[in-house]
Amino acid sequence: LIFAVMRLTKPTLFTNIPVTCEERDLPGNLFNQLMKDDPSTVKGAETLMLGEMLTLPQNFGNIFLGETFSSYISVHNDSSQVVKDILVKADLQTSSQRLNLSASSAAVAELKPDCCIDDVIHHEVKEIGTHILVCAVSYTTQTGEKMYFRKFFKFQVLKPLDVKTKFYNAETDEVFLEAQIQNITTSPMFMEKVSLEPSIMYNVAELNTVDTAGESQSTFGSRTYLQPMDTRQYLYCLKPKQEFAEKAGVIKGVTVIGKLDIVWKTNLGERGRLQTSQLQRMAPGYGDVRLSLETIPDTVNLEEPFDITCKITNCSERTMDLVLEMCNTNSIHWCGVSGRQLGKLHPSSSLHLALTLLSSVQGLQSVSGLRLTDTFLKRTYEYDDIAQVCVVSSEVKQS
Amino acid sequence: SNANTVKSASDQDDSRDIDQRKTQEEILFREETIDLGGDEFESEGNETVSEDSNNFVDKLNEQMMESVIISDSPNNSEDDTGELGCLQEIVEQMEAKDNKKTQGEVDKEEFLSNESETEHEETPKDISEIGTDDQASLKEESVQEAVKEEPKLGNDIPIETKPNSTNESKSEDKVSSLGTSKPSSEAEPIPVCTIFSQASNVNTQQQLFLPDGFEPQMVKSPSFSSIIETPVKSNPQVVQPSPSLSKFFGDTVNTNTLASDFFDSFTTSNFISVSNPNASSSVPEQMSSLSNGGDNNCASSSPTFSVRNGRPEANGHPSPEITQSPKPFSQIQAVFAGSDDPFATALNMSELERRNDAWLPSEETRNVLISVATQQYSTMFIDKENLTMPGLKFDNIQGDAVKDLMLRFLGEQAAVKRQVLNANSVEQSFVGLKQLISSKNWRAAVDLCGRLLTAHGQGYKKSGLPTNHTTDSLQLWFVRLALLVKLNLFQNAEMEFEPFGNLDQPDLYYEYYPHVYPGRKGSMVPFSMRILHAELPQYLGNPQESLDRLHSMKLICTKILEHLEQGLAEDGSMTNITQENRQASVQLWRSRLGRVMYSMANCLLMMKDYVLAVDAYHTVIKYYPQQEPQLLSGIGRIFLQIGDIKTAEKYFQDVEKVTHKVDGLQSQIMVLMNRAFLHLGQNNFAEAHRFFTEVLRIDPSNAVANNNAAVCLLYLGKLKDSLRQLEGMVQQDPKHYLHESVLFNLTTMYELESSRSMQKKQALLEAVAIKEGDSFNTQCLKLG
């Protein structure tokens, strides 16, 4: 028996080299006639380079993680004898496991001379690195002799994509995810799908299309594919779901955002798919007590009081008894009593606080100087640069 | 079914990431790299090394074009492995490493066999390596042979050899200081022109080529060799002007100089009028010696030398005749200027010629041409760089790879049976040339072109020597270069194209030869040759250069069309053109512009700039609306190739809307074919096969459908059926189906079937030997 294995990547289209001439040229219509007679040209448009003829893959090529490894296994009886009880087994040995790829494990009763057993195996490649295809054949000759042999075919699985991510935390608990996906293969890659599958805590909005006249257009334009080494940047906005947003303070430490699901296609629809691991992000540290601004005017008059609303959330595990102190800075002057009791604040609960202040200096001023002291632990939390406000002189504002 | 999840970063990675986070808590955002999939290997410590070597092997793989069959081919004997070079060592190192990793899982027995196995794997590579080596060495040999040939030729005439070079340098010196070309040059007071004037006499002699070719060396060398100081005065006729003009010199009537000899012999004569200084035959010598009598005394080479050698001398001592030449020259001008002159009228170029030859020279070239036309010979010194001096760069690529393979595999007896036309077996003319081309003996045709060009004085080693161009010589160059491209001998084509520069040198315009082509305007360079010239760099890995050239062609085409729209002639002159002719001209130039766009689109496709390529193909549709269905299908296939199935589908749907442009049967085939391709893109080989078969039902002889159906069968695991289909197709009409793509598929399947693939391939070789010419690309048989 003879054994042959061939990797079945997609066939390629034959390209021809058009050489044309005009009627008045020496060869007359000879060149054009030659091209017409060539079966690989497109009839009626012979100058078109890309033909319709399919050619079988010419080399093993590269195989990438997420793609499907297909292979033809042919066992051919080259002898003049009938052999019996043929069992073909194809295993794939990776660095971590051994997979059986044979479609059927049943033995073929007999194989006549010059006949063959064919099998096409498929396997979605899930590991990087060395893979070894192990093909084994066992059979019985006419003389009853048991025969067994096997062959090994080794190939490397490469990484197709390079993914980089970046998180941006908005003040409003939204999280923006920027994902850079780079094609590190050697062929153009059509990105069929790049989506973010959020974890249960988030809703996701894809920001990769622009609405123009009711039609959503891709921000990547008409170029639907990635050339080798090209990078594309995808942007997603994640909003905590309502039930989690309530307990915004509770989302802290490492949180699971979700994972990217990428589907691409290459030559003639050769498909690949990858998912990243769970993307995790460090929630910004708010400490025990989080102070966030609810409302603030953007422009205020010089030396005129204005109101802001703060929200104070207890992010710790214990109840707090808070005292608010307000310290004036060079420009910011707080109105009202400093050192007032805010009362008890339970874990994960929050309270709203309206404050009045004025600025004595024009320009962009930073609101600073709030101090919260937990009387139980005698611990003081300082809040500076909470927000910025534009201070103008009253004349300007009126005009 | 394919919803697989690839767990990416390994646990290790995760924990590492978390650590990082803890240390960087303050930072709100940060960049991190996610490893798609286990880097298990790399954690082992020797990571960098293993990765490097992996890459290296990958690179090797790419270069070596490893055969698809990863099995050891049964044909490779153990001996082959012995020949593995350093490649093998690397592989073995690799092996060792990999084995280390997998040792745990792979038992020892496997381990051993594994190693031996991979050795086998590499054997195909090895063979191919050896194969290419062989080829290389073969080439070298042929070159050496060529080199050898010359000395041999030299030995025949023992005197020469060395002086050759010295003379060349001399002639170069002359040329640089030399005025325009042959016809007008005789008017100049500068003696340099003698080269041309002398040479031009040659044209009267129609020389039959010797079948062996390559006389030029023999001829040239004697003329330059013996440096005997013969006074010029002894032979004043040396500086005889060009024949066409000679009649106007009262005293030097030369009987055999007819202007008509210069005319385009393109359609009428089988032979090229030899009008070049470097042309073959010993005519120049003869002419000089016998110029008084003007009759042909068969001068054997030796007597002529003495006379001939006067020429270099002539430079130093202008003969009296030369000094007086300007005067008669102006008279000539007068003769040609008058359009009433029946002679000149007869020479008015035809509408057709004007239309086809029109081309817009660059500013610089235009100035030279104008000065030629107005005979401002004081300004007519043209730099050598501005002249086109082509010559064959290699003298013989004749060979029949099919026959070589037959000798190797089938033995001498079989090889003898292989009969193809070669350059010797056809008439040494355009007729013979066409015969060779249509019988697909392109190598022989290239050879014949070379011979014809040699006869024209542009033969081997003539590059860089002054020469004249005719319509014929440029057509011959075009055919030769086009065939080289067709044979994928791009490097050779580039070498021979090089002296032509950007095809805009003044001596490539008819205006440069006012006496040879009186009144004729435009470029001698065929438009198709410009296309060829523009396309060539892309096959040599320089598509940007191709694009540049195509763009400048596009500009000129557009300009010419503009001129026509403005009521001017193609070149922008105020010639009157009838409406009918104008229409025809617009049509011609539109289609030429379309051809340029086609090349651009093809070039962009080659550059893999698909967006621009698709745009360019859309433009082509505007120029060739009748090709819309084919082009839209083509665009669809481009998207299919990228993997953008949806857009491909959209284009295929568009095709169905416009298929009325082609006749019923063809449109049906096109639609079915596109559907088949779409299924292919969706990984549905069964459906694709169904549609290809459907095409075959309508058009049983459709080679593409036949081949593609067979390919689908293979992917469906039906090797035997697939083979049967392809074999049937080849046997049914070998004349049509012995195409390299089909044969490539067939041989690949033979290898997969792996039983006696060698014999089967050899059977194919025999079939090829009967049907195909010497241009057959034997690589697809994978016999090497």
TrEMBL record, chain A:
<dbReference type="InterPro" id="IPR010378">
    <property type="entry name" value="TRAPPC13"/>
</dbReference>
<protein>
    <recommendedName>
        <fullName>Trafficking protein particle complex subunit 13</fullName>
    </recommendedName>
</protein>
<comment type="similarity">
    <text>Belongs to the TRAPPC13 family.</text>
</comment>
<dbReference type="InterPro" id="IPR055428">
    <property type="entry name" value="TRAPPC13_C"/>
</dbReference>
<feature type="domain" description="Trafficking protein particle complex subunit 13 C-terminal">
    <location>
        <begin position="297"/>
        <end position="391"/>
    </location>
</feature>
<feature type="domain" description="Trafficking protein particle complex subunit 13 N-terminal">
    <location>
        <begin position="4"/>
        <end position="157"/>
    </location>
</feature>
<dbReference type="GO" id="GO:1990072">
    <property type="term" value="C:TRAPPIII protein complex"/>
</dbReference>
<dbReference type="Pfam" id="PF23647">
    <property type="entry name" value="TRAPPC13_M"/>
</dbReference>
<dbReference type="InterPro" id="IPR055429">
    <property type="entry name" value="TRAPPC13_M"/>
</dbReference>
<dbReference type="Pfam" id="PF23643">
    <property type="entry name" value="TRAPPC13_C"/>
</dbReference>
<dbReference type="Pfam" id="PF06159">
    <property type="entry name" value="TRAPPC13_N"/>
</dbReference>
<feature type="domain" description="Trafficking protein particle complex subunit 13 middle">
    <location>
        <begin position="161"/>
        <end position="284"/>
    </location>
</feature>
<dbReference type="InterPro" id="IPR055427">
    <property type="entry name" value="TRAPPC13_N"/>
</dbReference>
<comment type="subunit">
    <text>Part of the multisubunit TRAPP (transport protein particle) complex.</text>
</comment>
UniProtKB/TrEMBL annotation, chain B:
<dbReference type="GO" id="GO:0005634">
    <property type="term" value="C:nucleus"/>
</dbReference>
<keyword id="KW-0931">ER-Golgi transport</keyword>
<dbReference type="GO" id="GO:0005794">
    <property type="term" value="C:Golgi apparatus"/>
</dbReference>
<keyword id="KW-0677">Repeat</keyword>
<dbReference type="InterPro" id="IPR019734">
    <property type="entry name" value="TPR_rpt"/>
</dbReference>
<feature type="compositionally biased region" description="Basic and acidic residues">
    <location>
        <begin position="13"/>
        <end position="24"/>
    </location>
</feature>
<feature type="compositionally biased region" description="Polar residues">
    <location>
        <begin position="285"/>
        <end position="307"/>
    </location>
</feature>
<feature type="region of interest" description="Disordered">
    <location>
        <begin position="277"/>
        <end position="325"/>
    </location>
</feature>
<keyword id="KW-0802">TPR repeat</keyword>
<dbReference type="GO" id="GO:0016192">
    <property type="term" value="P:vesicle-mediated transport"/>
</dbReference>
<comment type="function">
    <text>Component of the TRAPP complex, which is involved in endoplasmic reticulum to Golgi apparatus trafficking at a very early stage. Also plays a role in chromosome congression, kinetochore assembly and stability and controls the recruitment of CENPE to the kinetochores.</text>
</comment>
<dbReference type="GO" id="GO:0005793">
    <property type="term" value="C:endoplasmic reticulum-Golgi intermediate compartment"/>
</dbReference>
<feature type="repeat" description="TPR">
    <location>
        <begin position="669"/>
        <end position="702"/>
    </location>
</feature>
<comment type="subunit">
    <text>Component of the multisubunit TRAPP (transport protein particle) complex, which includes at least TRAPPC2, TRAPPC2L, TRAPPC3, TRAPPC3L, TRAPPC4, TRAPPC5, TRAPPC8, TRAPPC9, TRAPPC10, TRAPPC11 and TRAPPC12. Interacts with CENPE.</text>
</comment>
<dbReference type="GO" id="GO:0030008">
    <property type="term" value="C:TRAPP complex"/>
</dbReference>
<dbReference type="Pfam" id="PF14559">
    <property type="entry name" value="TPR_19"/>
</dbReference>
<keyword id="KW-0813">Transport</keyword>
<keyword id="KW-0539">Nucleus</keyword>
<keyword id="KW-0597">Phosphoprotein</keyword>
<protein>
    <recommendedName>
        <fullName>Trafficking protein particle complex subunit 12</fullName>
    </recommendedName>
</protein>
<feature type="compositionally biased region" description="Basic and acidic residues">
    <location>
        <begin position="95"/>
        <end position="111"/>
    </location>
</feature>
<feature type="region of interest" description="Disordered">
    <location>
        <begin position="95"/>
        <end position="188"/>
    </location>
</feature>
